[in-house]
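Reopening this one. Same input as before:
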Amino acid sequence: MGLDYSFRLYFNKAQIWDVLQGVVEIGQPHHPPAHILFPNRVLEIPLDAWVAHSNEFHWDDPELQFATVLNFAEDEPLWEYVTERDHRGEEYRSPPDDGSPRMISIGYIYLYIYQDLSGRHPLNLPVDLVLFEFGTTGTRMSILFEYSMSIRSRFTELLRRFHGVCGVFDRELEGEVFWFHDHLLTPQLCDPWALPEQIAQDLDL
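Same output, byte for byte:
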């Protein structure tokens, strides 16, 4: 089997729809959109609900799944990845007309949103957090996740913007904590499936 790395971002549960909108803003829109069914309204999300029947989720489903194409500022690992993937040459690197960083679209990146984390608590207690997990398609994208600082910066910005509780880079057998309660950390290792409260205890944060 190949590598299956991911970024795990924890937020307060009340932030879920704001964070999801933040993901939409950095992604390529998908049509038709997914629909989140609330008791009194329907929220349209222009992402690919790749496993949902009729592109529909209920607002309180324990898990929501999307296939996303996200935009990142070019860095060397991203450029090498897309040129190898698309067989394009140096012309891909020509600067954009307005002088801003060139954005590169990467997908599919699988987004799993876990609203019920009680089963991961050692005492099965309710957890007032939501987990946004961004997963890869396999080894090549996992290596890209490992080495692209642009990708990590993009996920860090989501944590910063929405006051994320914790950010973990999961290497399957170990995790690297890079964000904790509004603070950017020097990467520290932990159990990649540990909840933030356990991470705080293990790393004395």
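So the earlier flakiness isn't reproducible anymore. For the record, The first strand starts at residue 6 and ends at 12.
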